[in-house]
Amino acid sequence: MTDLVRLSIRIDPALAARARSAYSVESGFSGARDTWSDWVAAAIKEKTLAVETAFNQGRPFPATPALRPGPIPAAQQGGAQ
Fold first, then answer.
1. Rounded Cα distance, 72 and 76, in Å
2. pLDDT at 33 (0 to 100)
3. Closest to 20 measured CA to CA, from 6, 37, 33
4. Which of 22, 43, 56, 73 has fewest C-beta within 10 Å?
5. Per residue, what are the HEC states of 3-64?
6. Domain boundaries, the chain
7. Angle at CA 42, nearest 5°, toward 68 and 49?
8. pLDDT digits (tens, 9 = 90+) for 30-53
9. What is residue 29's predicted lDDT score, i.e. its pLDDT?
10. What is the rounded distance in angstroms from the CA atom of residue 37 to the CA atom of residue 1?
11. What is the pTM of this model?
């Protein structure tokens, strides 16, 4: 088993409810046995790959160990070159 890291986020309650419903519906129709964590991790992976493709020639970004709460300061925006 791969080591996993706990990730805590805050999102709009309505979006959280819709996401839980989407997970339940998809799991029910597909018969998938993914956990909620697996489902959310897959969504994060999909978005990460899209951003790496759009802004980093498809290469993985270097790891960022932690982010401070709130928006990213303008001086730090832009990602890898």
1. 7
2. 82
3. 37
4. 73
5. CCCCCCCCCCHHHHHHHHHHHHHHHHHHCCCCCHHHHHHHHHHHHHHHHHHHHCCCCCCCCC
6. 13-61
7. 70
8. 887 889 999 999 999 999 999 999
9. 87
10. 15
11. 0.77
